[in-house]
Structure formats: structure tokens, C-alpha cells
């Protein structure tokens, strides 16, 4: 509801969203409204609605990405605590510094030896980073497939449309090289070591993760109330008339 006069104030007050004119509107209408158009341009309402929806969707995607990735890290560490190594010590799939690196924080650690454990941690670390970064592409749409965001358009063009996100993902994947392969920096700081054939596991698990996300989107495209609802019963006009009598 929009208005500018004193007589519009009751309707502005009762409307879900009351919008008053900032330049030509009365003070009573401004006090009763929820929003005030400073330029008295109705097109500003359309722009504000579009911007508000964009911000809401971005916040929703960010919170969803943050919660799911953090829960994945916690579940991964809890599962690791269910096992023990040959020395009877708990198994940590990720070192503390690797967890902090995922969250863009760094700290110093010091440990030598245990080459096999280091390689396993490097594999887990790289897999987690790749999945988190690919998940950002999946969140470009909560229901459409990453490979068909825009019908009739190649998916790589949709990914390239947001160049900031694209290069952030690429640089994030390239940054995995530093904590895995830089001598001294990997085993003394990140508790890890270089890997070779383990990259097959990293790529394979990343593909499995993307496939799982695509299946989940496919499952969610049909509303829940329609997914298991019984088929509607069709009546003829004669049957409908008879049922009313």
C-alpha cells in the first residue's frame, strides 16, 4: 500500500507493507508507514524488492554453506575418534592446523615421522577443501542442477558469469598445494606430507560429492506435499452434481 495524504494513514498502518512518499507525503503518512520513498519514484520499490531478495538469497546460501561445511568437519573428526592406531592412540583425520586452515586461521604445530598418517591427512585435507569449494558452485541454485542453471546455456558460462566466485574457487584449489608440498611447511606446520596417487581419491570423492548434491536437488525439486500425496480423484460433472445432492 502506498500513499501520501493524511487520509491514507489508516490504510498504511494496516497494510503488511505501507509505503509513504518522502517528498510530497505528509508527516502523518510517514509515521504510519513502514517505508518512505525519498525520491517519490515508484520504480524504487521494484529496485528495493529485487535488492532485498538478492540479499536474502545470498545470506541464505552463505549460512547454508557455513553450517553444512562446519558440520561436515565435526562429523569427520568424530568418526575418526571411533578408531585407534597401532599404538592405541586416537585417529585424527585432520590435524588442528588443517581445521584452522579450512577456516582461514593459522597456528604452529610440530611433529615428525608418521609419514603414512601425514599422507592420509593430506588426502583428507585436499578432499575436504575441494568439496567445500565445489559446494559453492552447487549453491548458485538451491533446486536447479549446477550443469543446467540456465536452460539452453552451457554450464561453464553460468559458472564464469560470477567471475569473483569462479576465481575464488580456482585459487582455493591451488592453495592446497602450499600446505601439502612445501617442504618444512607441510610436515612441521600442517602435520601433513606430499601425496601422489592419493589424488585419485581426492578427485573421485569430489565427483561423488557433486553427484550426491545433484541427486539431492533432483529429489527436492518436487514439493514434499506432492511427493507422497495420493493421486487426485477425478470426478465427472454428473458425479459431482450427484455428490452435492
TrEMBL record:
Residues 120-219 form the Cation-transporting P-type ATPase C-terminal domain. It is found in: Cell membrane. Keywords: Cell membrane, Membrane, Transmembrane, Transmembrane helix. The keyword Secreted does not apply. It comes from the Eukaryota. One of its GO terms (molecular function) is ATP hydrolysis activity. GO terms for biological process: intracellular potassium ion homeostasis; intracellular sodium ion homeostasis; potassium ion import across plasma membrane; proton transmembrane transport; sodium ion export across plasma membrane. Pfam families: Cation_ATPase_C. The chain crosses the membrane at residues 62-84, 91-109, 121-138, 159-181, 201-219. InterPro entries: ATPase_P-typ_cation-transptr_C, ATPase_P-typ_TM_dom_sf, Cation_transp_ATPase_P-type, HAD-like_sf, HAD_sf, P_typ_ATPase. Its main location: membrane. It is a multi-pass membrane protein. One of its GO terms (cellular component) is plasma membrane. PANTHER family: CATION TRANSPORTING ATPASE, SODIUM/POTASSIUM-TRANSPORTING ATPASE SUBUNIT ALPHA. This is Cation-transporting P-type ATPase C-terminal domain-containing protein. It comes from Asterophora parasitica.
Amino acid at each position: 500500500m502506498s500513499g501520501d495524504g493524511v487520509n491514507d494513514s489508516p490504510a498504511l498502518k494496516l497494510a503488511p507493507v505501507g509505503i509513504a512518499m518522502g517528498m510530497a507525503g505528509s508527516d502523518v503518512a510517514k509515521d504510519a508507514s513502514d517505508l518512505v520513498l525519498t525520491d517519490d519514484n515508484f520504480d524504487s520499490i521494484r529496485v528495493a524488492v529485487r535488492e532485498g531478495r538478492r540479499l536474502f538469497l545470498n545470506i541464505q546460501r552463505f549460512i547454508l554453506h557455513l553450517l553444512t561445511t562446519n558440520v561436515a568437519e565435526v562429523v569427520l573428526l568424530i568418526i575418526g575418534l571411533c578408531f585407534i592406531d597401532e599404538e592405541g592412540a586416537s585417529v585424527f583425520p585432520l590435524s588442528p592446523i588443517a581445521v584452522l586452515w579450512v577456516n582461514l586461521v593459522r597456528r604452529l604445530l610440530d611433529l615428525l615421522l608418521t609419514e603414512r598418517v601425514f599422507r592420509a591427512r593430506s588426502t583428507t585435507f585436499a578432499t575436504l577443501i575441494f568439496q567445500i569449494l565445489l559446494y559453492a558452485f552447487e549453491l548458485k541454485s538451491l533446486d536447479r542442477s549446477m550443469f543446467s542453471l540456465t536452460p539452453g546455456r552451457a554450464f561453464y558460462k553460468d559458472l564464469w558469469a560470477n567471475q569473483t566466485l569462479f576465481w575464488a574457487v580456482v585459487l582455493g584449489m591451488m592453495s592446497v598445494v602450499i600446505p601439502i608440498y612445501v617442504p618444512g611447511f607441510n610436515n612441521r606446520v600442517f602435520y601433513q606430507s606430499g601425496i601422489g596417487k592419493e589424488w585419485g581419491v581426492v578427485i573421485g570423492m569430489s565427483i561423488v560429492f557433486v553427484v550426491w548434491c545433484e541427486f539431492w536437488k533432483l529429489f527436492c525439486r518436487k514439493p514434499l506435499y506432492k511427493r507422497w500425496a495420493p493421486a487426485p480423484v477425478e470426478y465427472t460433472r454428473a458425479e459431482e452434481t450427484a455428490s452435492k445432492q
